[in-house]
Design goal:
By secondary structure, the chain is mostly beta strands. It has one domain (about 20-240): Jelly Rolls (Sandwich), CATH 2.60.120. About 5% of the residues lie in helices and about 45% in strands. It has one helix and 21 strands. The chain has one helix at about 260-270, and strands spanning about 20-25, 25-30, 40-45, 55-65, 70-75, 75-85, 90, 95-100, 105-110, 115-120, 125-135, 145-150, 155, 160-170, 170, 180-195, 200-210, 220, 230-240, 250, 255. Strands 1, 13, 14, 15, 16, 17, 18 and 19 form an eight-stranded antiparallel beta sheet that branches. It is globular, with a radius of gyration of 18 Å. The two termini are about 25 Å apart. Residues about 10-20 have low confidence and may be disordered.
């Protein structure tokens, strides 16, 4: 998915939360088009830039909507598409054509550069779009696309967790990951204790239903050191986490880089039609890149 804000700014971080966790309120961002749906963006946040290598969390639905995100570029990241309801068609400049449905995973590794589009017919849509920042040693890997229709499940009293990225409780996703992390959908039914890696920081987002201490909308940040999270109720919860990301990054529009000059070069390549390939089969023009801000972008860490 693209960041469709017409004037995207560099988003700074605030102080971290205490041992009890930190609530990250989302902000509404329209995705454009005649039947535009609005997503709730909780990462990046004014108080926190990343959770592990996860640098972007958009949640949308459930609502009757039509998704039309025209071809746009990415660098230095992976896009992780996860649906609760509906169907979205992915096209990319590698020639991939893949519908995603609930319970399956679309994973696109941008690496040194890729472009893609996403679209759906008018109908119920409910899901999340996530980005993972690639660490320095892998951020220029060759672009790639993976679809995983079957994913492993970690089960325990009161819960079943579908692990779509990384590992949870010894269960590992087949999806390619370049840093220690976890991404899972936890179906809660009763009282549950879900194991966590104490070396990771985590984020929890209610997807549907009612789960104690997780109101709909905000992302709950949990700092490293926690070995278990207790959940109670009936619903579905998104869990993301990973080792705190040690590198400073620049994230602007749909690019993750390391400097202002790098972002400027990515934008120039996209606008001049070089370096990102062509998405074939989408009925419409590619998205133009926004104008860069008047001040230089700065590489920053996960917290201020």
């Amino acid at each position: 998915m693209s960041n469709l804000e017409p004037d995207p700014s560099e988003i700074l971080c605030g102080p971290g939360g205490g041992a009890g966790g930190e609530t990250l309120e989302g902000r509404a961002v329209p995705l454009g088009g005649p039947r535009a749906m609005t997503v709730t963006r909780t990462l990046p946040h004014v108080h926190r830039r990343m959770i592990g290598a996860w640098c972007f969390v958009d949640a949308y639905g459930p609502e009757q909507a039509e998704m039309r995100v025209a071809p746009h570029p990415h660098t230095g990241l992976q896009t992780v598409s996860w649906l609760v309801a509906g169907e979205v068609l992915h096209r990319d400049s590698l020639g991939s054509l893949q519908a995603i449905r609930p319970g399956s995973l679309n994973l696109m590794t941008a690496g040194r550069g890729i472009s893609h589009s996403e679209e759906s017919r008018l109908g119920t849509l409910h899901g999340v779009q996530l980005w993972v920042a690639l660490p320095g040693g892998h951020r220029e890997v060759a672009p790639a696309f993976e679809h995983h229709a079957v994913l492993p499940v970690l089960s325990g009293p009161g819960y079943a967790a579908t692990v779509f990225m990384g590992a949870l409780g010894g269960i590992r996703s087949p999806a390619t990951a370049y840093s220690p992390l976890v991404g899972a959908e936890i179906a809660v039914d009763g009282d549950a204790e879900v194991p966590l890696d104490p070396a990771y920081e985590h984020g929890l987002l209610l997807l549907d239903g009612e789960v104690a201490a997780l109101p709909p909308g905000p992302l709950l940040y949990v700092p490293p050191g926690r070995e278990v999270v207790r959940l109670s109720g009936a619903g579905r919860v998104l869990l993301v986490g990973g080792e705190p990301f040690a590198e400073e990054i620049v994230m602007w529009w749909n690019f993750v880089g390391r400097s202002h000059d790098e972002i400027t070069a990515f934008r120039k390549e996209w606008m001049e039609g070089d370096g990102f390939g062509t998405v074939r089969g989408y009925d419409g023009a590619p998205l133009p890149a926004p104008v860069l801000p008047g001040t230089r972008l700065k590489a920053r860490g996960r917290v201020r």
